[in-house]
Amino acid sequence: xxxxxxxxxxxxxxxxxxxxxxxxxxxxxxxxxxxxxxxxxxxxxxxxxxxxxxxxxxxxxxxxxxxxxxxxxxxxxxxxxxxxxxxxxxxxxxxxxxxxxxxxxxxxxxxxxxxxxxxxxxxxxxxxxxxxxxxxxxxxxxxxxxxxxxxxxxxxxxxxxxxxxxxxxxxxxxxxxxxxxxxxxxxxxxxxxxxxxxxxxxxxxxxxxxxxxxxxxxxxxxxxxxxxxxxxxxxxxxxxxxxxxxxxxxxxxxxxxxxxxxxxxxxxxxxxxxxx
Length: 276
Known about the structure:
Catalyzes the reversible reaction in which hydroxymethyl group from 5,10-methylenetetrahydrofolate is transferred onto alpha-ketoisovalerate to form ketopantoate. By secondary structure, the chain is of the alpha/beta class.
């Protein structure tokens, strides 16, 4: 699945069952986005557990205002590039906007991301009935799935912008129910984005599969950041939940290693990166 030129060929590959074992053992999971082989190699060298080829590439690589213009062809191209820089880091790839509009399209997209792109897991946003059906269908065909709940960027127009989700009790209860639903559908992992710390903690304690937070507080089983935010090169205002790990360090490698270390020690995210 991955190339042979990675820096640590003796490291055992990270797997979906392995992530669940990490949750059970209380070991925090380090996830980071990547969009090309060179940066993927940096993630591998730093011992990052999961590389995510996010449709965030539409914003940080292509310069769009949202993730919506990203196509499946774009995702396959970037996923394949990232795969060439990895050896043992688990590779997850997003299903882009509308590629999960029905089960047939979701299966086609998943097959391309795994078969052509080299992904080991695909990520779907939300928990609508058609998404739950797609999760079950993908898992039935041996394609592991990462769910994504809370602030789901592909729903930006429905939300009226990139807004924190689950602050009211009814909304929080709905997101918790969605987490249980995606787990029941067969998801192996859940990204929780843009929600109060207390809600992310409730979800993490309620499900057996690992949770990965981004703007969801310190109680998740792991954390993910967009690489460009971590390096402080994202144009405009950096999101509240991110941190410039390159500041005060002399290399990209040092910044990624520092991020991995802070996640594993529970230092990041700190209170200033969280929402109430």
